[in-house]
Design brief:
The protein is mainly α. Helices cover 63% and strands 0% of the residues.
């Protein structure tokens, strides 16, 4: 019995933010709305989907998703409409192509450049420190040590 209650509580957890007045009467449309809402970021909570968030903006976005679906839009058209209004920031999984590909690649590229620079600097530093003294340098060193009062 305890397991059944635990399973029911866990199953209901993702639906806590969606209020009863938001739920569509058509179960197919509601499933589509939940699927879309799970992939959209709440602008206030930032790392929660609008389906999980209790913020007013998230509620407005959930209602907007449902309005678009009732109007006959496909899932892609609904997401495109919201992205056009709010920008790609609302996508929990942003597109990895086009201009975003540059953003995804800059971090690792800079890391590799820094590591390569550190490797070369360390390698260059070692080779200079281990090079033997020239005859001129040895003579100057001997002169300095001769003048040392200690």
């Amino acid at each position: 019995m305890k397991r059944l209650i635990l399973v029911l509580c866990l199953a209901a957890a993702p639906t806590l933010a969606v209020e009863p007045d938001e739920v569509l009467s058509d179960p197919m449309l509601e499933d589509r709305a939940r699927e879309i809402s799970a992939g959209l970021r709440c602008p206030v909570c930032q790392n929660e989907s609008i389906d999980e968030s209790n913020a007013d903006v998230a509620k407005d976005l959930r209602l907007l998703v449902r309005e678009r679906l009732v109007a006959g839009d496909s899932n892609e058209e609904t997401v495109d409409f919201i992205v056009a209004r709010y920008g790609e920031y609302v996508l929990l999984r942003p597109d990895t192509g086009g201009a975003n590909l540059i953003l995804w690649g800059v971090g690792p590229a800079v890391l590799l450049l820094v590591l390569g620079g550190l490797f070369l600097a360390r390698r260059r530093g070692r080779s200079d420190a281990t090079a033997p003294l020239s005859a001129e340098e040895e003579a100057r060193l001997a002169e300095l040590l001769k003048d040392d009062p200690a």
